[in-house]
Specification:
Shape: globular
Distance between the termini: 28 Å
Strand content: under 5%
Structural class: mainly alpha
Low-confidence stretches: 16-21
Radius of gyration: 14 Å
Order of helices and strands: HHHHHH
Helix content: 55-70%
Mean pLDDT: 83
Number of strands: 0
Largest sheet: none
Length: 135
């Protein structure tokens, strides 16, 4: 997966390093996106989704996992050109990868991102995504 695409989405969703606190949040978002992208790279079933859709889903899951109030900002939707309803199936798949990462073939990626060097983002609680009827 092209990590540059989700980084562009991060910038488009106004996560810029203008203040120290915001810079820390952006670092966490980037680290979480890298973790989720690596999980997707290892899993063959993610290839059914387009890279742009996966990138938007990765960013949505990362923002949700990190507790951001607006986990699918309007600017992200505008630049990604996907509605949240279109992103949710891929996002749910990514969440399922997060759930099974500690005990599956994804364990190496999980252990890597549990280290302090990678911000320990793999230790973040797996988010719960809304059902389509809840939107």
């Amino acid at each position: 997966m092209d990590l540059g695409l989700y980084r562009w989405y991060v910038r488009a969703s106004r996560c810029q390093n203008s203040h120290r606190e915001l810079a820390t949040v952006c670092l966490q978002v980037n680290q979480m996106c890298e973790y989720l992208s690596e999980l997707c790279l290892v899993d063959v079933t993610t290839s059914k989704h387009s890279l742009s859709l996966l990138s938007a889903a990765v960013l949505h899951v990362a923002l949700t996992a990190l507790g951001r109030a607006d986990s699918y900002p309007r600017t992200l939707a505008r630049h990604a050109r996907y509605k949240l309803e279109e992103v949710l199936p891929a996002a749910r798949h990514i969440v399922s990868l997060m759930r099974k990462a500690p005990e599956s073939s994804l364990r190496a990626v999980y252990k890597k991102h549990c280290s302090s060097k990678f911000g320990e983002v793999a230790k973040v609680e797996v988010p719960v995504l809304p059902e389509a009827a809840e939107l």
